[in-house]
Structure formats: C-alpha cells, structure tokens
Amino acid sequence: MNDTNVSDTVLDRLTREWDALTPEAQKAARYVLENPADVGVSTVREIAEAAKVKPNTFVRMARQVGFEGYEDFRAPFREAIRRGAVSFPDRARWLQDIGKSGEMGGLYADMVGAAIRNIEETFAGINAESLQAAAEVIWNCRQVYTLGVGVNNANARNFTYLASTGMKQFHAIPRPGSTPVDDLAWADAQDVLIAMTCKPYRTEVIEAVKLAREQGLTVVGISDSPASPIILNADHGFVVAADTPQFFPSSVSTIAFLETLLSFVIAVSSDEIVERVERFHQRRHQLGIYAEDPE
C-alpha cells in the first residue's frame, strides 16, 4: 500500500466490495466510509457500538476486504493519525475571537468554520488525476447532462451556464416541466450524466443514475458520503463535505468542486474553446450587456 494514502486505499476496497458484503457488514462499512477518523481511535467494541452492529461483524468485514482482523484493518487509519494533518493555529485563533463577539458572532464563527472545513475536507479527499479522468470523459462525450434537484438544481444550472459560455453540449436537467428520466430518454453510451444529491438522498436522482447506467452513460457522481447510492453507482465518484450548523446541507464545497471540475474540462479541451469564450464575452460587450467602466 502507498504510505501516503493507506487509509484511502482501505476505503476504496470497501467501496469495491460493497455489493458482496452482507447487510450487517454493509452497516459496518457505511460507518467506516462516513466516519474514517473514528477507526484509528476506536476499539472494535467501541466502533461496533457506534455503528450499531456486533463486534464480530467488523472482524468479518475486515477479513472480507483482505485483512486478518480488525486490528490489521485499523492499522492504516492509526498511521494516518500518526502522520497528522496541517494545523492552522492562526485561523483557529481568528475563529475563537469571532466566537467571543456575542451570540450572533458565535453563529458566524460556526458558519465560517463549517464552510472552511468543508472546502478543506472535500479537496483533501480528491486528487488531480481523478479530476482529470472525469474531465477528459466529459470533454470527449457527445452530450453532458447535469442533474440536481432542490438546492442542487441551482448548482447544476450554474455549472451548465458557465460551461455553455464556451461549449454547446451541456444540459441542466430536469428541464422545466420535465423529469430527469424523460430528459435522459435518448441518451446513450456516447453521453455523460453528472448527478448530485446529498442526504436525504433524492429518489429521482437515484433512479436517474440507475437508468443512466442501464443505457450505458458514463456517470459522474457527487455526494456527501462514499456510501451514497450516487457514489456507489458512479464511474467517477467525488465526495463533497456538506456539514453545516444550520438545517440545510451546505453547497459551498459542491460549488467549489464544480468550478474546479469545469476548469479541468477547459484545461483538457481544444484551443477552440478558449476562442469561443473570448467571442462570447466580446459579443456581450458589443450588445451592451456589461456596464463599461467610465473612462
């Protein structure tokens, strides 16, 4: 195993073996995928209690993915803790100062801290190679369907709008008055579906992903857990952190990820795309859409 990504490698194994796990072992695996930081500091009894399964379930799960037992399974996570993460003491002091400013200041600190943490956690779990692979598939396909409902509908449309300044094959779905499965009716193996949903997962997105796989589309999944049905059924899966002190899932890291993905698509595209983006904005200036700076 690569010493710098040992725990990530274990998580990848769990994802690959997911369908072969028993329902109880899947509960254990889901807990590990969603709480990897707990593994290195928990005994088998402690983590089994947290996951609401028996300790033997964790032992069997560990063996099924190639380890001798739970202690062997836990070792890569303990190594990740030993290596430690980059600390930001100045940022921590800044957030504490905000928190001391009063009741609303405390809420502000919680929201700012969650947003920064979500961005860091999201990009810490994604590498450039994975992004480039997804970007190349998107660039080389016939049509790109970007699916999001609820708050993610706005995220999908924003991504499609930005992409459409230089490329023609991007479509945000569901279209007004339509459904995701109807919008995918004529899509096939030449096309890509980018689908996003966070807990509680939307059934129409899950069903659209299943249909897309049946029709041969390449699926790029964006969700908040490695155990999400969107990630498990994706050809290219990306986990975004969406925690927030408020009642709604945060879109901060989703938007940041989509902007980064689009930048990779542009990077692997032809020179013609850059020329199209320039012509697009020149046209806007000519039509008076932008307010010109006073001379």
Task: Describe what this molecule looks like in 3D.
The structure is a single chain. The chain is of the alpha/beta class and 295 residues long. Strands 2-1-3-4-5 form a five-stranded parallel β-sheet, with helices on both faces. Helix 12 (203-214) links the parallel strand 3 (192-196) and strand 4 (218-223). The chain has helices at residues 6-16, 23-34, 36-39, 44-51, 55-64, 70-83, 89-99, 103-124, 128-140, 151-163, 180-183, 203-214, 229-232, 252-268, 271-286; strands spanning 144-147, 170-173, 192-196, 218-223, 236-239. It is built from 15 helices and five strands. It has two domains: 6-92, Winged helix-like DNA-binding domain superfamily/Winged helix DNA-binding domain (Arc Repressor Mutant, subunit A, Orthogonal Bundle); 118-287, Rossmann fold. Helix 2 packs across helix 5 and helix 8 (103-124) packs parallel to helix 14. The longest helix is centred in the middle third of the chain and has 22 residues, at 103-124.
